[in-house]
Design goal:
heterodimer; A: alpha+beta; Rossmann fold; 9 helices; B: about 500 residues; mainly alpha; MetI-like fold; 2 domains
């Protein structure tokens, strides 16, 4: 997994971000319940969750656009929001990029970027500098309406970065872009953020995006943090069944025994730890090998180029997903065998 | 206002049920309903033809169809009547053909015809805007699911446009209810006539009827809101590749229908006015010479323009905060303010004027205001405020909350946000709102007649006075000036931006 951020040096001026015991409620049930999360200076943390899980609300609470019911938010040493203090968003020194960029349509690119700068700096080199960072210095006098979606997001980023914010917040910044453009803009912005070493919290509902860009990923579910960890921790050692299936494909089978191994529809599987109660075993598709054999029938093949996902319907009726190499010696309808090829499966409590 | 009626009248309930009260009420309802229905059919049909079919010359029709809006209904009525009288162009043409056309437009039919012709744009504009904003995928899906174009129109397009049609028809209904000039010329005594006639000698009756008129207007507004709340049209951006219904062999008939409507609503009155206004210069017909010099045209023109500009600016300045409150903060204060302002539009200008006269006469601290400019502007703002409010509201909501959030996070305080983000983004919408108020103010007659300061002459009052005195040539010249100005305004505000804030 990508983990360049941790290696980059933290620039001066970057502060950490701390959220502790944050609860946000409107009229109905609370949107966020007792959320605590820390982002180290210079770190990129992805906030991953399905829609309605409260991730945007968390971002807006940190920015000061929502008023939490309880809990505190601190930027570096400074508490910006708790039961006594509530610093207005314009005084928090937080940069934010919105889903659609939210560029001011009546101002050209350079005046958009200059908007957050102190009056004296607005005509200085800082604007050009910020535009150069995102590779758009030639677009300084274009109007936002004439830019492409990717350009707009990069201008929005330049605008957020120009005033040298202590913390950068990104709200699903790539979700309005189409697939190919999204990968390209994502790679560019990722590189830029890592290079700048800026403390970043970004919201996404796309598991792949969270893993690719985040040094760490916080998974949010129903207004609560389900798990925080590096991408590989989340993928290989998910805290529970829900996280396991949310961050990737999963074959889950109930465990009936209590020993070091357990019997599954794909044979006996060694366990990484003995189960302590009713549990399930997690077999990722990469852990399964499709072999010559007679365990089941190939029901579906999803071919991705770098590899392929094969759905095999076993003879006892269970369907399993296995990831195989790009050269496929079988096709739909063939009889195949399925075997466990990993070194020890994770046990999840039910 | 209720207080005024209760204190002023001896037996309001008795008056209410009297025949002399009920008859004008019945006539008013009859006329307003007929006009609203006819305008709804005409406006919707034309909108559909211009937006959703392959009508030849669509671009031209789209520009021309809303133009009858420039005619104040009383000017239109005057043009129709004078065109048909001996000496009028229509009468003369028929006479030249050897026919004695003694047709006189009057009564219910005349009022209905004239009001329908000059108010259908109130339906056309919102419906056309709605139809062109409606995602074509809806209609396409209906077709793919087996509907003929006609059935798709009835089952998908009409329900989607219904709220726009209802809103437009409501405007037409209110316009008709409060119309004074056209029905007067057509000798059709509606409530406004009775109120105007009895305002001096039978104040009790006048005020009671005024209250009745207000109640009628408010009842209709409330009913419309109730219905409107239930339907929520699908939002979407109009497709560039809109599916156009081929008219086929109906093409000629459709073009003919458009031409007929515009011929009646735009060409006929203009020609009739031009005929009356210009012929005296050419042949001195009927012994008339123009009793009108430059100053008589320029003076009223100038006062018309500046009073309506002042009204527009005041209306927008007063209503912008209300619009802001409504769009950004859902609060009961905003709701009440909204109700008050919208109610103001429902109240006919005549009634607004009467109540202001009452207040300035009977409340001594305001006595010095009798017949002063501020009172006139105030009356206009009360009456036309809703138009500015609607557009201001649209303008406020077009500035997404995210813009404001983005500016805040960039360190901008409230004042800076308002001046650098909100106002510049709202400016076009606010200008359109101001323009609508200006346009309406120019065409307003009864309130101007009643409460304008002595000696203050606008184009509308001058047209009225010269027509009442039968100086038709003078009427025609002034009317053409008014129509030209409001045509220019309409083009700037309504046709050019291609949208109508409904």
């Amino acid at each position: 997994m990508v983990n360049i951020g941790a290696a980059s040096t933290t620039r001066p001026g970057q502060v950490g971000l701390g959220v502790s015991g944050l609860t946000v409620a409107y009229d109905g049930p609370p949107v966020l319940v007792d959320v605590s999360l820390g982002v180290d200076p210079g770190e990129i943390v992805a906030l991953l969750g399905p829609s309605g899980s409260g991730k945007t609300t968390l971002l807006r609470s940190i920015a000061g656009l929502e008023k939490p019911a309880s809990g505190s938010v601190s930027l570096g040493e400074r508490i910006v929001s708790d039961h006594r203090v509530f610093l207005a968003p314009e005084r928090r020194r937080v940069g934010m990029v919105f889903q659609d960029g939210a560029l001011f349509p009546h101002l050209d690119v350079s005046r958009n970027v200059a908007y957050g700068l102190p009056r004296a700096e607005r005509s200085s080199d800082r604007v050009t500098e910020a535009l150069r960072m995102v590779g758009l210095e030639s677009m300084a006098h274009r109007m936002p309406g004439s830019l492409s979606g990717g350009q707009r997001q990069r201008v929005a980023l330049a605008r957020a970065l120009a005033p040298r914010p202590g913390v950068l917040l990104l709200d699903e910044p790539f979700s309005n872009l189409d697939a190919t453009l999204r990968l390209q803009v994502r790679a560019e912005i990722h590189q830029l953020l890592v290079g700048l070493g800026i403390t970043t919290l970004f919201v996404t509902h796309d598991q792949e995006e969270a893993f690719v860009v985040g040094d760490r990923v916080a998974v949010l579910r129903d207004g609560q943090i389900a798990q925080v960890g590096t991408p590989d921790e989340l993928y290989l050692r998910p805290a529970d069944r829900w996280v396991a299936t949310f961050v990737g494909d999963a074959n889950l089978f109930p465990i009936s025994s209590h020993g070091e191994t357990c019997a599954t529809p794909v044979g006996t599987v060694p366990l990484s730890s003995p189960p302590g109660g009713p549990s399930e075993v997690l077999l990722r598709p990469e852990d399964l090998a499709v072999t010559d054999g007679d365990d089941g029938t190939v029901e579906l093949v999803e071919y991705y180029g770098h590899d392929a996902m094969v759905v095999v319907r076993l003879d006892d009726g269970v369907a399993v997903r296995a990831r195989t190499a790009a050269d496929l010696p079988f096709s739909r309808g063939d009889r195949v065998g399925v075997a466990y090829a990993g070194s020890g499966a994770i046990v999840l409590p039910v | 206002m209720v207080w005024r009626v209760l204190t002023a009248s001896g037996n309001p309930l008795g008056l209410l049920v009297e025949r002399r009260t009920l008859e004008p009420l019945w006539r008013t309802i009859q006329l307003a309903t007929l006009v609203a229905v006819a305008a709804a059919v005409l406006g919707t049909g034309l909108a559909w033809l211009a937006v959703r079919t392959d009508l030849p010359g669509r671009r031209f029709w789209r520009i021309v169809i809303p133009l009858p809006l420039v005619y104040p209904s009383f000017v239109g009525a005057a043009a129709f009547i004078s065109g048909l009288t001996p000496g009028g162009i229509v009468h003369d043409i028929f006479a030249a053909l050897g026919m004695d056309l003694s047709l006189r437009l009057h009564g219910l039919f005349g009022s209905w015809l004239v009001l329908t012709l000059f108010t259908y744009p109130y339906v056309y504009l919102p419906v056309a805007a709605r139809l062109s904003a409606m995602p074509t995928s809806l209609e396409e899906n209906a077709r793919l699911l087996g509907d003929t174009p006609g059935r798709a129109f009835r089952r998908v397009v009409l329900p989607q446009a219904s709220s726009a049609i209802a809103a437009g028809s409501l405007l037409v209904f209110l316009y008709t209810v409060s119309d004074f000039g056209a029905v007067h010329l057509m000798r059709f005594e509606t409530l406004t006539q009775t109120i105007f006639r009895t305002r001096l000698f039978d104040q009790d009756r006048s005020f009671t009827l005024a209250l009745l008129l207000v109640a009628l207007a408010l009842a209709v507004v409330t009913a419309e809101r109730r219905v409107a709340r239930r339907s929520a049209p699908t939002e979407g951006i109009g497709d560039r590749y809109a599916l156009l219904v081929p008219l086929g062999r109906w093409k000629t008939a459709a073009t003919g229908a458009c031409a007929l409507v515009l011929g009646l609503a735009l060409v006929a009155p203009t020609v009739s006015l031009a005929d009356w206004g210009l012929l005296p210069y050419l042949d001195g017909r009927a012994g008339t010479s123009l009793r009108l010099d430059w100053a008589d045209v320029v003076g009223p023109t100038w006062s018309t323009i500046w009073i309506s500009a002042v009204t527009a600016v005041v209306a927008v300045a007063v209503l912008l905060p209300v619009a802001y409150l409504l769009a950004r903060h859902r609060s009961s204060v905003g709701g009440i303010a909204n109700g008050v302002v919208v109610g103001g539009f429902a109240i006919p200008g005549l009634v607004v004027a009467l109540s202001l006269i009452f207040w300035t006469l009977h409340a001594s601290p305001f006595e010095f205001l009798i017949g002063s400019m501020p009172v006139l502007v105030f009356a206009y703002v009360v009456h036309f405020g809703a138009q500015a409010l609607r557009t201001a509201q649209v303008a406020v909501t077009t500035v997404p909350q995210r813009m404001d959030d983005a500016a805040r996070l960039l360190g901008a305080g409230r004042l800076r946000r308002v001046t650098t983000v909100d106002l510049p983004l709202m400016a076009p919408g606010l200008a359109a709102g101001a323009g609508l108020v200006m346009l309406s103010t120019m065409k307003e007659l009864p309130a101007t007649l009643l409460i304008s300061p002595i000696g203050f002459r606008t184009l509308a009052t001058e047209i009225w006075n010269t027509y009442e005195a039968s100086f038709l040539a003078e009427t025609a010249v002034l009317a053409l000036v008014l129509v030209a100005i409001s045509a220019a305004m309409t083009w700037l505000l309504v046709v050019r931006p291609g949208r109508f804030p409904a």
